[in-house]
Specification:
Largest sheet of chain A: 6 strands, mixed
Largest interface: A-B, 26 and 26 residues
Shape of chain B: globular
Distance between the termini of chain A: 37 Å
Radius of gyration of chain A: 13 Å
Structural class of chain A: mainly beta
Structural class of chain B: mainly beta
Largest sheet of chain B: 7 strands, mixed
Shape of chain A: globular
Order of helices and strands of chain A: EEEEEEEEEEE
Number of helices of chain B: 0
Order of helices and strands of chain B: EEEEEEEEEEE
Distance between the termini of chain B: 37 Å
Radius of gyration of chain B: 13 Å
Number of strands of chain A: 11
Oligomer: heterodimer
Helix content of chain A: under 10%
Number of helices of chain A: 0
Number of strands of chain B: 11
Strand content of chain B: over 45%
Helix content of chain B: under 10%
């Protein structure tokens, strides 16, 4: 499969804890993106990290990329109940290929 | 700016019927992509359009078709509906400044139920 694979499939944590989600892929990429989806709704873009970048931050989000291991991780610090959602990684191999999504990690943050 | 809009939001059809879904991208965005999302298969790419031209097509049967108009609005059509076509259909638009660095902005989706 060319899809990215997120790990774990589901994660349940207490409010205030950190949540880490991982994404692996098989072919070389141009960039990797993370999206969030609240139950049954559209996806919201979180962060884009380019293949020549190793780490990127946005508020409570931290994304790392290891192209040698073909993997990325998304860390949400000090999680809140509102962070409860599904998180997807998506990658684009080259300029004109479509974005390929993984199957996502379902995060539940318990207040 | 208004976000990506999709109509209708919910749709119930029966097997054998056909359906047309509509997507209006963010103003100024020229690229529109369509995805099908199901619990079993996840998010699967359907089509990508730019300036009225289909740039990429996913691995779906010919019953699935789409088009883009000169104002960048897009429609997708599914003919001879099957039960397995029940899904959330998501549309996304992007600015197309540099495709390789593009992020996509998603609409709320159209939930299609085929009975």
């Amino acid at each position: 499969s060319q899809q990215g694979e997120e790990d774990p499939q589901a994660l349940s944590i207490q409010e205030g804890e950190n949540a880490t989600m991982n994404c692996s892929y098989k072919t070389s990429i141009n960039n990797l993106q993370w999206y969030r989806q609240n139950s049954g709704r559209g996806l919201v873009h979180l962060i884009l990290i380019r293949s020549n970048e190793r780490e990127k931050h946005s508020g409570r989000l931290r994304v790392t990329l290891d192209t040698s291991k073909k993997s990325s991780s998304l860390l949400i610090t000090a999680s809140r109940a509102a962070d409860t959602a599904s998180y997807f990684c998506a990658r684009r191999n080259s300029g004109n290929t479509p974005l390929v999504f993984g199957k996502g990690t379902r995060l539940s943050v318990i207040a | 700016k208004a976000g990506v809009t999709q109509t209708p939001r919910y749709l119930i059809k029966t097997r054998g019927q056909q359906v047309t879904l509509s997507c209006s991208p963010i103003s100024g965005h020229r690229s529109v992509s369509w995805y099908q999302q199901t619990p079993g298969q996840g998010l699967q790419f359907l089509f990508e359009y730019f300036s009225e031209t289909q740039r990429n097509k996913g691995n779906f049967p010919g019953r699935f078709s789409g088009r883009q108009f000169s104002n960048s609005r897009s429609e997708m059509n599914v003919s001879t509906l099957e039960l397995g076509d029940s899904a959330l259909y998501l549309c996304a638009s992007s600015l197309e400044a540099r495709l390789s660095q593009e992020t996509q902005y998603f609409g709320p989706g159209t939930r299609l139920l085929v009975l």
